[in-house]
Amino acid sequence: MNNIKKIEKARTNIFIKDSFLGYILQHIKINIVEKGTTAYTDGKEIYFTEDFLESLDLEATIFVLMHELLHIVLKHVNRIKNKNRLVYNIATDYIINEMLIRAGYKSGNLKNILFSNKARYNHSAEQVYSEIINDYHDEFKSFSDHSKWEATNSDFIDEIIDRAIEKGYETSLSGLRSQILIN
């Protein structure tokens, strides 16, 4: 399956499983780029490197799309401020990955999934950050690259979320609505 078809199939599967996030994802541009190592978001769009996307099976592609989408929905890019980037990355990944796994998303052949042994899906990224900042270790690795995070205007995502709510779309992610309200 070529990369564009894989992205479209993943988008369709997401919409079938979670109409709320599937609707939002339909409004997010997904780019396939040559340079880089994995996948990332700039807070408005999602990016996959060609090689990374080719290496993923469909389950992993869905997981990564959902992961990056949740960074956008939860506005993590705008909330990093003066925090240690790697530790904030770990905090946000703990929350997102737990939400996805609790909702039944499978990581497929994806490697380097950060997952905490504590239930953190209902915590804010800032709460988790303050809990783990003293346990920071350089060896933490993630499949997602957050080095591209820069504050951006996020009004567009609020409008998309509002339209999804107005349409009555539901989410399968436990804690997502409270996470949106926290943020």
Radius of gyration, in angstroms, nearest whole number: 15 Å
Q: What low-confidence regions span 5 or more consecutive residues with pLDDT below 50?
A: none
State the total count of DSSP E strands: 3
- N/C terminus separation: 37 Å
* Biggest beta sheet attributes: 3 strands, mixed
Class computed from helices, strands and strand pairing? mainly alpha
Residue-averaged pLDDT = 85
The helix-strand sequence is HHEEEHHHHHHH
Binned strand content: 5-15%
Helix content: 40-55%
Strand order of the biggest β-sheet = 1-3-2
* Form type: globular
Number of helices: 9
Report on this structure.
- By secondary structure, the chain is mainly alpha-helical.
- The chain is 51% helix and 6% strand.
- The chain has helices at residues 3-17, 19-25, 50-55, 58-73, 76-79, 85-102, 125-132, 155-166, 176-182; strands spanning 30-33, 39-41, 46-49.
- The protein has a 3-stranded mixed β-sheet with strand order 1-3-2.
- A hairpin with a 4-residue loop joins strand 2 (39-41) and strand 3.
- Helix 4 (58-73) packs across helix 6 (85-102) and helix 6 (85-102) packs across helix 7.
- The protein is globular.
- The model has no long low-confidence stretch (mean pLDDT 85).
Present the secondary structure layout.
Blueprint: H1 3-17, H2 19-25, E1 30-33, E2 39-41, E3 46-49, H3 50-55, H4 58-73, H5 76-79, H6 85-102, H7 125-132, H8 155-166, H9 176-182
Parallel strand pairs: 1-3
Antiparallel strand pairs: 2-3
From the structure above, extract its key features.
single chain, 183 residues, mainly alpha, 3-stranded mixed beta sheet, 3 strands, globular
